[in-house]
Each structure stands twice: as structure tokens, then as C-alpha cells.
What does this fold into?
Amino acid sequence: MTQDFVLQRQQLIKSLTKAGIRDQAVLRAMASTAREQFVDQEQRDLAYADCALPILMGQTISQPLIVATMTQALQLSGSERVLEIGTGSGYQTAVLARLAAYVYSIERYQQLSYLAALHLAEAQLDNVSLYVGDGSLGWPDEAPYDRIIVTAAAPEVPPSLVAQLTMDSVLVIPVGSQRRQELLVIRRASLETRIHSLGSCIFVPLVGVEGW
Ligand code: SAH
It folds into this structure.
């Protein structure tokens, strides 16, 4: 069974390459992260299908191609402090932890955060801090961050998150209605801010003061 997962993981990496993921470090990080550890027991056979899967509390673990696309957009070099909003299963957190210096991740559901902590420990990733609360307000105590990734859909870019970015930073966030969003990449370099879209996407809602 374990062997089978290794093979399936290699096939997933091939399909991500075909789909246009070019950042070798991102592909390596995903090749080293066992997605089957982060999905519910009854979903394990589907762990390497390139689709979102249900997790507890009516939430989802993101599709691998979305994880790869968002992570690639963050342009991580290894030295960054990253803030993630929406820990969920912890899978995206694990991929980030392999590519950044330190990851802070916030989840609104205690139960998801607890399970994510167990699975991240199992994966022997210790450059991560988890927090339970409203991530639409960020994590001011640990700010500023070089990168922020939001894995839930926001009605607009939360001002609190922008305020917690460094002057040389990237924010990746799905923004739009609850039914459909644009995956925005907001790059701030010195005094210039550029925004572009990676296309449309569908995420569960960001529920909070600066969310829905
Ligand atoms: N990256 C996760 C995606 C989980 S889905 C994964 O791949 O597993 C998005 C998560 O955002 C859900 O777990 C949801 O509970 C959480 N969420 C929604 N609004 C939030 C908020 N305001 N603060 C923190 N987490 C939130």
C-alpha cells in the first residue's frame, strides 16, 4: 500500500508538470509530502487524485494543482516568514514548511487545527506554529510577513492582512463571490504594488470580521 502511494505521488508530480508547474522546488516539496497523511481515513484511496476532497467541519483539502499554483506564485526562496489563513488539513502548510523559513497558520476550527498539528508532527515538520482564531484579521503579534497565503475565499482583500506584509512581499488570495473567485497575486516591491489574476477558482468562504 505504502509503495502504491509513492507511485501515485510520482504520477501526480508528472501531471502537475504537464499542467504547467515549473518551479522545481515546489514540485520537490510536493513529491516529499505524503498527502494521504492529511486526508480522512475514508478518502485515502483518493489522496492522489488531482481534486479537492472533503475534510471535517464541511471544509475541503485543496486540489493539488491549486496548492502547487498558489505555492509557486509565492516565489519562496527559503528565507521567508509565511502566514497562511485556513490551515484546514495542514497539507498546504506542510508544503510551505518545506520551502520557507517559518510558517504561521490560522484555522477557525479547533478540531481541524488539532488534527493538522498531529499530521505535521508526523511529517516531522517543526518550523510551523498553528493558531485557532479569525485569520481574516491576520496574526498581528508575529507580523510582518514576507508572504501571506489565504486558502479560503474573501469578498475583498482584507486590509488587516495587507497591513501585516513587509515592503517586499507577495499575497495570494481568492477574491470574489461565494460561488466563484479570481485567484489574485498581489506583489509589493519597494513602493510599487502589482496585482494579477491566475484565473478563476472556487474556495470555501473565509468566515470572519474581514471575510464573509
Ligand atoms: N489549505 C487547506 C484548505 C482548507 S479549506 C487545505 O489544503 O487543507 C479553507 C479553510 O479555511 C477551512 O478549514 C476553513 O475552516 C478555514 N477558514 C475559513 N475562514 C477562516 C478564518 N476567518 N480564519 C481561519 N480559517 C478560516
